Amino acid sequence: MPIEKRGNWNFQFSRRNFVKGLLAAAATVLIFKSSCQSNTKPNIIVLGNRGDPPSSFNSMRTSSIALHHIGGAIFGPGNLVMRSRGNMYLPAPYLARRWYSNADFTEWTFILERNVVWHDGTPFTADDVKFWLDLAAFGITAGGKTRAPAYYKGELGISKVATLPPDVVTITLEQPNRFFPDVLSAPRIKLDHPRHLMEARIQNGEIDITPLDVGLIGLGPFRFENYEKGTIVRVRRFDRYFEPDGEGNKLPYLDGIDYIITPDALSMDLAFRTGRLDGTARGFGHYLTDRRLDNYVKDFGGKLNLAQIDGGTFRLAFNVLKPGPWQHPLVRRAIALWLDKQAAISLVLDGFGWTSPEVSPHNPYRDKNFVIWPRFDTAPLAQKREQARQLLNEAGYPDGFAMGYLCRAQNGIPGGQFLKDQLATLGIDLQLQIVDEGEWNRARVSLDYDSQSGNLSLLSTPEGTEGVFGRFSKSPDAYAKHEDYEIDRYYSNLRDATTYNRRIDVWYQLQQYIYLTQTYVIPIAEITYIQAFREYVHGLIIPPEDGHTFTDYATVWLEDEAQR
Amino acid sequence: MKIRRWINNFWIRRTAVFFLTGFLASVIIFALLFLLPGDIVDVIAGDVITSPEVKEVLREELGLNDPVVVQYGRWLWSMASGGFGGESLVSGQPISQLLTRQFPVTLLLAGYTVLLAVMIAVPLATAAVLNRNRWLDYVIRIGTIPGQILPGFWLALLLLLGLVIIFRWSPPLYYTHPWQDVWNHLQIVFLPVFLLTWEYGSHVLRVTRSSLLDTMKQEFVIASRAKGLSNKAIITRHGLRAAAVPVITVLGVQFGVLLGGTIVLEYVFGLPGMGRELVEAALARDIPVVQSYVTIMVLLVLLLNLLLDFLYRYFDPRIRTSSIATEVVLRKNI
Predict the structure, then answer these.
(1) Cα Rg of chain A, angstroms
(2) Among A226, A276, A377, B202, which one is least packed by beta carbons within 10 Å?
(3) Which of A151, A152, A153, A208 to mutate to test the interface with B (most CBs of B within 10 A)?
(4) Is there a contact between A263 and B61 if contact means CB atoms under 8 Å apart?
(5) Can you give the pLDDT at residue A458?
(6) Cα distance between residue A457 and residue A477, in whole Å
(7) In terms of pLDDT, which residue wins out, A28 or B125?
(8) Which ipTM value was assigned to this complex?
């Protein structure tokens, strides 16, 4: 029935015309869509990324995997040195082709690669290294404004950087360090501040300038193309990248990488399962869990590449600077003996892990007897628990006590609940103080709690652990809060060690002291992180531990679509 | 006398209240954010060892050591001068730049929802009233129950999982505006808009239905019926307008709830809107971003309330009259 007529246009608004209009609109959209679609898929891998890179992609400010998963492609897998692609525990040449030190290991000289260029075509020089290291080690104060040094300043311990143009850089250290290249090869230490784009702006007062402010110009295998916050970061092959593969072929093999920002792990899973992602994100919370892996396997069968990376430790650490029964070493030891560590793997670590020391079993610094000593007691659990009760009696707490536990809401609740349930049977009332990320980050470096798990990224070298095992006044980030000068002595011995074996021996003694003699920290179990890739993704170099390593994807290639 | 009359002007009074409420809200938000435990410097450093000296210098660099009043003043000045609160402490990006990208996402999401909710809920409510206590009425009413009681994020996860399991389909991963890629846009907003419309529209539908039912009992409806008008004609020509005020009220009141819903769904569906940014900023203690975003949302709701006042007066002449009458009484008292 016509309800409206206007002018000479003989249009009748009817149900039939309405349906026709809808169909026409749908057809237009479909035609538009099909015309927009390309027939060939580019050689670009699509990966999940845990979140937006914080701090304007400034690796001097944050170690967040949300930045470093992308940063590896743009800024490269290393700096002057990198972790060897064949054995991540060895430093390998990257921007420096060789290096040497003076006799007492206080001065290190690096000879740079030639023909390295920044993504904008500017040649890379020794002055670039000095500019970057000066910023990282000393920060800047100018015109009443201050720029903080990099968070890893303490690990580097640099006192001076000098250059001998065009390709020699000499780094003087505050104290001898026989293993400085090991420290420097940490993948979190990225050369991401190009002098030619930043120096003048800093001199003009822009001292808080960041890599994003200068267009993310790096030296890595992929150049930055664009970034849409909350959505995507696109990088494309840098044709003038200097690093060849083992056979002398040019790297990288891919034309580009699209990093999709997927803060929600479930959404990322669904996107992977429906083929919108070629690989999942790195980062705790996004690595696979037992149950999620089941769904992946159900969907793809064996047609998956599952990259396994040894991850962080689930542990219990005590604040012995706060009065309470946990100040007694016997109490701490009793708790260590009481915990059913094997049960933690399924209940806390998503089903992937092993009862563990602090370092991965792949790590050359691991305990030679790690399976039987010191944390992994071979006695049956019942026997250990009996001993635990005796120790608690000896310490004067036969009826148990109450103890607080700083529990991270984001991912610490399963661990907190596990510990609470376990210790309840020993008579210890573990009171969970569940806090969000902001409060957790504040409280973990304070003395406001009784116990915590602690969760920090470490350098995979013994010397790199002082920040988490050292004295509170020296290392506020430490898992356990204590003022034990004996630990200073162990670290001093470590630094003085000039041979590999001596270094390992001191490291074992240190672990025995921390875990057994004093039981400041109880390592319970270590998680295995799993990152999934589709079966047509090849050439992945997966580090045995530390997910920040080899995030450049320079050696990755995709099978032709026809072969998939 | 003139000033008093000016003060008593409804619109001037409402505008003044609008700005005063906005200012007070910003002060309260700022104070609350400062009461929150946690330090952004620790959040920025993340899970790495950072010396206290470096953290202190970083605090200085970010201006966190300035007195609270100075920090608030800086933020307020930036808001007033169009900078929308300065820069994000976490990403370092200007908040105005973040808003340029994120505000349209949230606005589109909310806009689609309001539009669809009205377009679907009002006809369905009319149909329910016309078929009162018959099967169609029951079906419509039952259909609104999940929208009102089930949490949006749970339904979202269920829907996503269902689509993957049954159709092997999931929404696109990156958001585009409709003017960039309309097909991609439609695919990515379809599910969140569907869920939000279900939730928001359910409230609108139930209120419209009950308001219409009340209207249908009024004398003018009986008179219309006596004139020989059909029920359909009475509802569409007279009833809907008479029932509009409660519907407009619920549209306004539920808008705040709708914004809350978008926050959760933006996160689940990976939409780069204001809600998702707000959640991430709050967790990271990125105070300028949280402060600016919450204040903008408060201002949006206040603005909507102002608009509703206008619409009340349009739809119900009695409100206009009573307001004028009130003003006349006030003047007499003067």
Answers:
(1) 27
(2) A226
(3) A151
(4) no
(5) 61
(6) 11
(7) B125
(8) 0.76
Nearest CA in chain A to B37: A439
For B177-186, what is the mean pLDDT?
Answer: 92
**A239, A252 contact by CB (below 8 A):** no
Q: Select from A62, A153, A231 the Cβ nearest to the Cβ of B272.
A: A231
A426 Rama class: left (phi>0) / alpha (psi -120 to 50) / beta: alpha
Q: Do A261 and B270 touch (CB under 8 A)?
A: yes
d(CA B299, CA A524): 50
pTM of the model: 0.82
Residues on chain A touching B52 (C-beta within 8 angstroms):
476
Q: How far apart are CA B15 and CA A355, in angstroms?
A: 65
CB contact under 8 A, A32 and B175: no
C-alpha A471: how far from its chain's center?
24
Closest chain B residue by Cα to residue A64: B46
Choose among A32, A228, A270: nearest Cβ to B183. A32
Q: How far apart are alpha carbons A374 and A507 in whole angstroms?
A: 13
CA distance A392 to A423: 12
B51: closest CA of chain A, how far (Å) = 7
Token duo for residue A317: 């650490």
Q: Is A453 exposed, middle or buried (0-12, 13-18, 19+ CB in 10 A)?
A: buried
Is residue B231 packed enough to be buried (19+ CB in 10 Å), middle (13-18) or exposed (0-12)?
middle
Tokens of A436: 């969000």
Instruction: Kindly list the residues from chain A whose CB atom is less than 8 angstroms away from the CB atom of residue B166.
Output: none
Buried b (16+ CB within 10 A) or exposed e, A303-340: ebbebbbbbbbbbbbbbbeeebbbebbbbbbbbbbbbb
Residue B334: what pLDDT? 38
Tens digits of residue pLDDT in A276-314: 999 999 988 899 888 788 888 888 887 899 998 887 788
Question: Do B44 and A62 count as a contact with CB atoms less than 8 A apart?
Answer: yes
Residue A96 CB-half CA count within 13 A: 26
Chain A: closest CA distance from residue B206 (Å):
27
Are the beta carbons of B57 and B45 closer than 8 angstroms? no
List, for residues A421-479, the tens digit of each pLDDT value: 999 999 999 999 998 877 888 888 889 899 998 776 665 567 778 888 999 998 888 89
Residue located via tokens 């143009």:
A165
Q: How many other CB atoms sit within 10 Å of the CB of residue A160?
A: 15
Q: Which amino acid is at A544?
A: P
Q: How confident is the model at residue A372 (pLDDT cuts 50, 70, 90)?
A: very low
What pLDDT does residue A5 have?
Answer: 44
CB contact under 8 A, A442 and B38: yes
Minimal Cα–Cα distance from B11 to chain A, Å? 38
- Identify the residue with better confidence: A387 or A1: A387
How is residue A119 written in tokens?
């993504």
Q: Reply yes or no on whether the pLDDT at B19 is more than 90.
A: no
The phi and psi torsions of A498 (rounded to 5 degrees) equal: -110, -5
B272 touches B66 (CB < 8 A)? no
